[in-house]
Amino acid sequence: MTALQLTGGPVARRLRAETEANLTALRDRGVLPGLAVVVATDNEATLWYVRSIARAADKAGVRCTVVDLGAGAAADEIASTLARLSADEDVHGIILQTPLPPGVAGDELVAHISAAKDVDGANPLSLGRLTVGQQAFAPATARAVVEMLEHYEVPLAGRHVSVVGRSAVVGKPLLQLLLQRDATVTVCHSRSRPLERYTSEAEVVVAAVGRPGLLTGDHVRPGAVVVDVGTNVLENGDLVGDVEPLSTAEVASALTPVPGGVGTVTTALLVLHTTQAALELSEGLVPARSAGPGSSA
């Protein structure tokens, strides 16, 4: 068996078409949407990702500003920056990129992002609304996984999905999005041992840990669909995921590549979310919407 490659390009193109429609409406209102990405790290994988966001925004016609505070930024400096951007009428979307400097608690800082501008669903208010099915932006990577599965018509209702990773960025919000689509979800983490006990039973497996080669063909049920969320930069500069592709492709029915998979959709969603936020802010609507199509939000 050779796994079908579920690439992100076709999904991103559809999302970019939605973005262009929003931009047309914004131009009629005289609004230029602005996205601000706050960075406080020198992590190469993160910087690669931020550059991809900036390129996607620029290509779409959305103004993107990268606010680089340096890897030694203090918590109060980051907090004041987020508060300033939240009050800036020219900024419609705000992202606080992780990782943060050692000792800096991101779960406290994201509360300084206005819910109306929280285009990556990081604010606890956004995550809480998502949990109970109210209007909120879902974290873009989590929504990107669902967008890809739905685009490629992978059934979710009644299916067993195993999510490897319990972060607030991917694992936990993805749990909510999958539950909204009637999937039965197992969330695995560092203490889920042996890992293959949980992943080998699932019809869909999502790897979102940030550890190269974490999942292999031995972890996967024959015919399963595998979604690789990992973005890891090796010492030689290569970008790889959390899934070992060769052995997994021999067992799985479908696999998302890295690069060219979930990340492509994630960046397209962040730009789309920014235009949605700009439209709603121009109409005086708060909070901004959309946990994605098919959700109960």
Task: Give your account of this protein's structure.
The protein has 297 residues and is an alpha/beta fold. Among the domains are: 31-114, Leucine Dehydrogenase, chain A, domain 1 (Rossmann fold, 3-Layer(aba) Sandwich), CATH 3.40.50.10860; 140-262, 3-Layer(aba) Sandwich (Rossmann fold), CATH 3.40.50. Helices cover 39% and strands 14% of the residues. The chain is built from 10 helices and 11 strands. The strands form 3 sheets. The chain has a 6-stranded parallel beta sheet with strand order 1-11-8-7-5-6. The protein has a 3-stranded parallel beta sheet with strand order 3-2-4, with helices on both faces. The protein has a two-stranded antiparallel ribbon with strand order 9-10. The longest helix has 21 residues, at 262-282. The protein is globular and about 55 Å long. The termini are far apart.
Query: What structural category characterises the helix and strand content?
Result: alpha/beta
What's the overall average pLDDT, rounded? 93
Return the CATH topology of one domain: Rossmann fold
Helix/strand order: EHEHEHEHHHEHEHEEEEHEH
Rg is 18 Å
The order of strands across the largest sheet is 1-11-8-7-5-6
- What is the molecular shape? globular
CATH architecture of one domain: 3-Layer(aba) Sandwich
The CATH superfamily name of one domain is NAD(P)-binding Rossmann-like Domain
What is the assembly state of the chains in this entry?
A: single chain
The largest sheet, given as strand count, sense and whether it forms a barrel, is: 6 strands, parallel
Q: What is the total tally of β strands?
A: 11
Structure annotation, total helices: 10
Cα(first) to Cα(last) distance is 38 Å
Helical coverage, percent range:
25-40%
